[in-house]
Amino acid sequence: xxxxxxxxxxxxxxxxxxxxxxxxxxxxxxxxxxxxxxxxxxxxxxxxxxxx
Length: 52
Known about the structure:
- The chain is of the alpha+beta class.
- It contains 1 helix and 2 strands; from the N terminus they run H-E-E.
- A hairpin with a 4-residue loop joins strand 1 (37-40) and strand 2 (45-48).
């Protein structure tokens, strides 16, 4: 029983890892910023929008 559970866990972990690494854009995420902020590619985070 222990061997089956271990093998099933390893299979599940391997499957999830291979699916994530197969995605061509796995290093990109959808980003939405709060109102008044904009995404900065340089900073890699939301920064306040400067208007005026």
